[in-house]
TrEMBL record:
Gene, per the UniProt record: hypE
Family: Belongs to the HypE family.
Start and end residues of each PurM-like N-terminal domain: 73-175
Domain PurM-like C-terminal: from-to ranges: 188-334
One BP annotation, GO: protein maturation
SUPFAM superfamilies: PurM C-terminal domain-like (SSF56042), PurM N-terminal domain-like (SSF55326)
Species assigned in the record: Tautonia plasticadhaerens
Coiled-coil ranges per UniProt: none
The protein's name: Hydrogenase expression/formation protein HypE
Length: 362
């Protein structure tokens, strides 16, 4: 090759790979949930498997099963996700709990009622069976908490040094009620953007373990099943336009995807975005933007303006939404772009993360 396949940007732990648009191999940045991930999906996967359901790029696929004999065909939602987090156990959770919540939450933010899970385990030779037992027990408890049943699975074993302990892939299936449609393509100018709580907790909790960062107060991952919160929200505001759980790539990636899909602009108010002081401090120390940091138990919602206050009240009445806030609005200006108005009055563009901020986070 005559030219490098990646550029490097300075980061808190050395250099950060930023994949070039013409890169001819997979780089860590392709797994970050930001611009590189979107480019990879758009370049390879959507053209290869192209259909209107996949091309919608929602967190889940909603399809109607074939009907017959006059019986209405049900609508189901399907989502699949892979989990490669390091370390396997972290404050507030572990890879098993994350694997259940991550897939369940992708279903519920689309308005579906989750029912079943399947799981595949890629085990590394030498993994302690006690650790695997802890992960399995955590998944069992998380399924019970979320009200789903794990009904199928698979296991494979790879050579020592080839699997980093365990990787887990989960697939979820749920029922999508008739008449309910939530899509990132449906945001309209004037709509309000809400977040269910403080952002960046999961990513900074993982980083604190890896890098030995200590806080005055205990910081834990926010991983949690969001089904109960979503039911309360839809009960109070059936007209919610869209919901998204801002996992890899954080709030910035989720809102940039929404702005592009709906062909609208988004304006955020920095002073309204809830961030824990310890998360903000860690981000400042490490040169990170809380908007880019992964979350595993938070959601974003797009509400018609007349319903926003009622929706906010419903969210704050639920334990997983007590720190909810209205953080911005959808605008007609600058379609496809997200901007942030700072507390001092300036404004900047909020872009999708280009490289890999923190590998192996979910």
């Amino acid at each position: 090759m005559d030219e490098p396949i990646e550029a490097t940007l300075p980061g808190p732990f050395g250099t950060c790979p930023m994949p070039r648009a013409d890169a001819d191999r997979v780089l860590l940045g392709h797994g970050g949930g930001g611009r590189a991930t979107a480019d990879l999906i758009g370049r390879l996967f959507v053209p290869a498997f192209g259909n209107e359901v996949l091309a919608a790029l929602e967190d889940q696929a909603t399809v109607r099963l074939p009907g017959g004999d006059g019986v209405p065909a049900p609508r189901i939602a399907i989502s699949t996700d892979a989990f490669v987090v390091r370390p396997l156990f972290f404050p507030g959770g572990d890879i098993g709990r994350l694997a259940v919540h991550g897939t369940i939450n992708d279903l519920v933010v689309g308005g579906a009622e989750p029912l079943y899970l399947a799981a595949a385990f890629i085990l590394e030779e030498g993994l302690a069976l006690d650790d695997l037992g802890r992960i399995v027990a955590s998944m069992r408890d998380s399924c019970a908490e979320a009200g789903v049943i794990l009904v199928a699975g698979d296991t494979k074993v790879v050579d020592r040094g080839k699997g980093d302990g365990v990787y887990i892939t989960t697939t979820g299936v749920g029922l999508a009620p008739e008449g309910r449609s939530l899509s990132i393509r449906d945001a309209r100018p004037g709509d309000r953007i809400l977040v269910s709580g403080t952002i960046g907790d999961h990513g900074i909790a993982i980083m604190s373990v890896r890098e030995g960062i200590e806080f005055e107060t205990a910081l834990e991952s926010d991983t949690a099943p969001l089904g109960g919160l979503v039911r309360a929200m839809l009960g109070a505001c059936p007209g919610i336009r869209a919901m998204r759980d801002p996992t890899r790539g954080g709030v910035s990636a989720a809102l940039n995807e929404l702005a592009a899909a709906s062909r609208v602009g988004v304006t955020l108010l920095e002073g309204s975005i809830p961030v824990r002081p310890e998360v903000r401090g860690a981000c400042e120390m490490l040169g990170l933007d809380p908007l880019d940091v992964a979350n595993e138990g938070k959601l974003l919602a797009v509400s018609p303006p007349e319903d926003a206050d009622a929706l906010l009240a419903a969210m704050r009445s639920h334990p997983l939404g007590r720190d909810a806030a209205i953080i911005g609005r959808v605008v007609a200006e600058h379609p496809g772009m997200v901007t942030l108005r700072s507390v001092v009055g300036g404004e900047r563009i909020v872009s999708m993360l280009s490289g890999e901020q923190l590998p192996r986070i979910c």
